[in-house]
Amino acid sequence: MKAEPVHQVRLLDLQEIDAELDRLKHRARTLPEISEIRRLDARLVELNDQMAAAETALGDLDREQRKAESDVEQVRVRADRDTRRLEAGQVSSPRDLESLQSEIASLARRQSELEEIVLDVMERREAAEGRRAELAKAVDAAAAEREAAENRRSEAVLEIKDEVDSATQRRTRVAGEIPDDLAALYVKLREQNAGVAAAALRYGRCEGCKLALSTVELREMRSAPADEVMRCENCRRVLVRVDDSGL
């Protein structure tokens, strides 16, 4: 393939722009904010699950407290009724009187036990409410942190987009100066060589594969016409002769 030396050198400019675009795309894919947002999303899922469990626990404790308070009320009502009967002298039989007094004492003990249960439930409910409040704060903090990370990511993406747009415009100008057959070869070699299709020959070394050319290869490069498109024997990239090629 033949191409004017200026066009071959322009191929290096195109390669540099494409490398810049590749770096920008990689940067966009690997922004630290992306992994941070994923981490915070997982944290929010975990916290929301814990919040749901805390809400369920509070609901269970509410029911438990209502039942315990209802039990206390039932015992209290019965004890009050028996006490009124006793105070009104409605029981005259000594045996019935003894039985009634025993029942009142038993109800008092039962009411005391149930009131202890109510206090225990209230204490556990207070602790559960504290846990829910802590989780609510943690959810708010994680959500705020995620929003900040999302804002940073958006700013970085916009910055990268501006750089990509600028580089793309420069690429369009440079690509328009390169002959079609040379441009087609460049595209093909980029696909085959991890995005690097053209490299400069500097001081007898291919900048693509970083290997030094042999004496025979250098002699061929030196004797080849200036418009001959040369290829590296090692990596097969287009090898462009420049001022400091060492020929």
From TrEMBL:
InterPro entries: CT398_CC_hairpin, Oxidative_Scav/Glycosyltrans, Zf-RING_7
Coiled-coil intervals, chain numbering: 37-71, 97-159
Statement: the UniProt record of this protein carries the keyword Coiled coil: yes
Keywords for the protein's UniProt record, in alphabetical order: Coiled coil
Keyword Nucleotide-binding: no
Record domain CT398-like coiled coil hairpin: where: 14-193
Pfam families: CT398_CC (PF24481), Zn_ribbon_9 (PF02591)
Signal peptide bounds: none
Domain C4-type zinc ribbon: start-end pairs: 205-239
Protein's UniProt name: Uncharacterized protein
Source species: Actinorugispora endophytica
